[in-house]
Each structure stands twice: as C-alpha cells, then as structure tokens.
Amino acid sequence: MNRVIMMLLPAKMQFKLGVWKALNFGLLLLLYLKRITAYTPRVLLPDYTIFLLIGFTVVYGLLLSLPKVLSKWLPSKRLHLLEHDLNLLFAGYTLLLTFWPRSYTLPNFFGHYGVVGGSLPLIALLVIYTTQRVSTSQKLQLTNLFSSRLLVLLGLAIMIAATETSKITLIVGITGLALIALLGIGYSRHLARR
C-alpha cells in the first residue's frame, strides 16, 4: 500500500519550513507594530492584548524548539510534517488576530463559540496524525485528510463568526459541519469508484 502523505496543505501549495517560520515571525512583528502604533481598533482591552501577544510569542518560541523536544518520540519525517502543519495553524491564528482582533476578545472567545472554532483546527490535526498510526485503508486516510482540511477552515470561520451574534455563529457552524459531512461522503464515494 502506498503511504499517504498527510498534511493540511496539498503538496502543490507547500512552502519550505524556513518560509513558514519567516512568515510567522513577520506576522508576529506586524502584531507588535500594530500594538505599538495603536493602529489596532480599540476592541481589545489593553492588558489583555499584551498578554495575547506574549502568549503568541511563547507559542512561536515553542514551534521553533519543537524539533529538539519531540525528536526523541517521533521519526524525523513525521516530525517535519507536523512542524509544517503547526506552523500553518499558527499563521492562521495570527492572521485572525491581525485582521479580526475581535475574535480573541474574552466575551467572543470564551463566552461564545469562539473556543469551539479555535479548537477545531487542533482536532483536525489530531485526526490526521492519529489515522496515520492506525492501520486503515488508504482511501479512508485520504477521506480523513480531506475532511480535516475542511475542518481547519471551518474552525477559523467560526472564530470570525463568533464576533457577531450567536445566531450567525450557529448558522456558520451547523452549515459548515453539514457541508463537511456531505463533501466527505461524496469524496469517499468518489475514491471508492476509482
């Protein structure tokens, strides 16, 4: 059986790891510049913003040290793939903070459905890497990969929708999950016919 390369981005859209790290560093610099120049709309509490920036910086530092920490437990190829995917998710979360800072306000993130949207990409990443370990068919792995990619997009969309009313967030969430289910089933049937 051919081994499916399980990553969030398709092979044609992937950058080198150094590009991801430079992109994430640039996004962090942009966030700090927005904070320093007070360009950010006044939607976040000032104390909360600085804690959020410090948290993002710590997570970025953890991403840089990831190979040294996990090299004992993961093979180098899998670690490299995981590093790519985590850098992609970090870029997504950072872009959200850059362009939709209201998605991280306390009422929007913890009080509403923003926490669900924030956790869906992480769940999608777990699905990808756990199905690789279980001996499943290649078609099932491809279907899980396709659905996980859609789940990442849905999670980020829910975080954006959480800045509006809870009705909009529920509509986006339920419609997105229904679409993922229908598209996943359709893709699975398409693979079965091949």
Could you explain how this protein is built, in words?
With 194 residues, this protein is mostly helical. The chain is built from seven helices and no strands. It has helices at residues 17-36, 46-70, 76-99, 106-111, 114-133, 138-161, 166-193. Helix 3 packs antiparallel against helix 5 (114-133). The protein is flat and about 55 Å long.
Features of the shown structure:
194 residues; 7 helices; mainly alpha
Helix and strand topology:
Blueprint: H1 17-36, H2 46-70, H3 76-99, H4 106-111, H5 114-133, H6 138-161, H7 166-193
Instruction: Encode the helix/strand succession as letters.
Output: HHHHHHH
Q: What general form does the structure show?
A: flat
- The averaged pLDDT comes out at 77
Based on CA atoms alone, the radius of gyration comes out at 18 Å
Largest sheet: none
Low-confidence stretches: none
Count of individual beta strands: 0
Query: What is the number of helical segments per DSSP (H or I, 4+ residues)?
Result: 7
Secondary structural class: mainly alpha
- Estimated helix fraction: over 70%
